[in-house]
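User: Structure tokens for this complex, please. No commentary.
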Amino acid sequence: MADILPGPVCHSCGMAITKKDDFGCEANMTVMNISYCRHCYWKGQFTENITKEEMLTNIANAMKLGKKMTDEEARKMAGNMMKLLKRWKDQ
Ligand SMILES: [Zn+2]
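Assistant:
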């Protein structure tokens, strides 16, 4: 069942990960099985202790950039996307 996005995408902020350098890493600096980007996850931990609500606002703002979209529409889209991201799907 495809209940998470096909990768590579960051499962914290939803950003597409296009380069190996963009992956986060574990404490021993390996990138094995990492589902997060370097901005969200570094050396085995999340870089920011951000709440689901704060991330929703961040993603909604990014989605709105350059588009004719209301706050409400952007937040709805962001919320739908976050249901597919591992970091938030169980919250
Ligand atoms: Zn990320």
